[in-house]
Amino acid sequence: MNLFDGKKVIIIGDRDGIPGPAIEECLKGTGAEVVFSATECFV
Amino acid sequence: MSYAVIKGAGYALVHTPDMIIHNGTTQTTERITNPDSEYLKKLPEHIRSYEKVVNYAPNQVYIGNMKPSDLEEIEMPWCNTEVEGADRFGKFGEIMPQDEFIALLKIVDAFDLVKIEKGFTQTLKEKITNHPLFKKDVEKLKDGEELAEIEKFVNEQHAEAIYHNELLVGCVKRAHDVDTNLTAHILFENLVVKASGVLAFKNLIEKNNIHVEDIDYVIECSEEACGDMNQRGGGNFAKAIAECGGALNATGSDTRGFCAAPTHALIQAASLVKAGTYENVVIVAGGATAKLGMNGKDHVKKDLPILEDVLGAFAILISKNDGVNPVIRTDLVGRHTVGTGSSPQAVITSLITAPLDKGGLKITDIDKYSVEMQNPDITKPAGAGDVPEANYKMIAALGVKRKDLERKDILIFVKNHGMPGWAPTQGHIPSGVPYAGFAREELTTGDLNRAMIVGKGSLFLGRMTNLFDGVSVVIERNSGVEEVRGGVSQEEIKNMIAESMRDFAAHLLGE
Questions:
Q1: Is A1 part of a structural domain of the chain?
Q2: How many CB atoms lie under 10 A from the CB of residue B485?
Q3: Is A22 in CB contact (< 8 Å) with chain B?
Q4: How many domains does chain A have?
Q5: Which domain of life is it from (chain A) (predicted)?
Q6: Least CB–CB distance from A43: residue in B341, B342, B384
Q7: Residue B415: inside a domain, yes or no?
Q8: Which ipTM value was assigned to this complex?
Q9: Which of A18, B14, B34, B205 minimizes the number of CB atoms within 10 Å of its CB?
Q10: What is the pTM of this model?
Q11: pLDDT tens digits for B124-146?
């Protein structure tokens, strides 16, 4: 059983850190379902 | 043609305590959604005085009275230390108080939209008479209006109120009855950009002994849009600022790209000069009232002052090669393209190592990286971390991967090739360009040889694309080869003389 199996995931990425699409990419191949993904600007 | 150079830089900050409360979007949104909030009640107690803003070390760095490295000697939070002997005027520019800036809004107003109360106008006249850059403009303040008239504009005709020390002292009128792009709110924000842009522009000219008539072109690169209902964002702040700055021989245009725009503008200006299209191009941007107090809730929660209490503005002159000032290597440009992707490795590769590879350079060959130079005093309490430091660590990590440096040297790299951030979080203002003034010094009379300016922009905020953006460019010490009139370099002249001598010798031998 994988940590992300059956989990719904909300991603808030950071433009100056790890952006949303990059986190999404990391979750591909896990059992996670990405229900929302966005990149925010905190500055 | 040889590379363009950075010939001068001007920087300005404007302390705007009342505009934090009345025009910053964090506060205006809070007043709509939660009018009785604790934050709004506590906010006025956390606003700094003008003296404290002048004495704040990052602000002294911004106008050139201190060096970025001086901040390393001050314990954080920097707002706990007041700089002794701080001055509102610096070698790069100045920190203007709010009342003088309200006068400036009136001085740059071409359509009689700004109305200032009579008594307050008299006070402003006295102040502006003593300002070294605007004393000749004092008559533009006119006589002022009755307070009742201003109240009528605000209460009955949708004018945007202007406050000073919590008192109504003026307003900006709307410019049309129904046009949503000429509302008083939009015109206020646009006049703020124009006025603060003019302030930076005038400081650039004054502090660098530039002949303003020599300026051919101006690129404005802030984040506002001016136009009416038929052309929202039609422009053109650049020409409006050039006009107020007395640049009679200049035209111009606006470049937009969120926070990355100044670096885009720098590359465009350098390319226009290198191509020979223009000899002297100014890039300029004013500040944004919307971002005042943007992270105010976190600052108040942590019992800090509201640190986003200034508008930022800058102006930089890019000119043809003079053999002295640092050159802008427009052949060593980094770009985050549509296809780059968003992983930190892809971003840093496109912006940092791709241009270095073009020049056969290592990551350590750049002496200073000027990335997003946001002041960590502002961003850390708000949970956004230390933005410049995070960027330096990512650059260093890629350097380790490329074997340009050892893993154990990452922190030394961050210290030696990076700088603490000192720019206010005014969007486009921190974007690489606050270092241009220091770069000009350190790459001429200082001991550095190369710097890189990096700008990043959050395009997704405009809801037209999910992408963000970034561009970068290498700045280098001038090798001293001056371009002569007619576009022929000294090197080319030497070659022409050598060729003539050879021809002459061959002619003699032939005889």
A1: no
A2: 6
A3: yes
A4: 1
A5: Bacteria
A6: B384
A7: yes
A8: 0.79
A9: B34
A10: 0.92
A11: 999 999 999 999 999 999 999 99
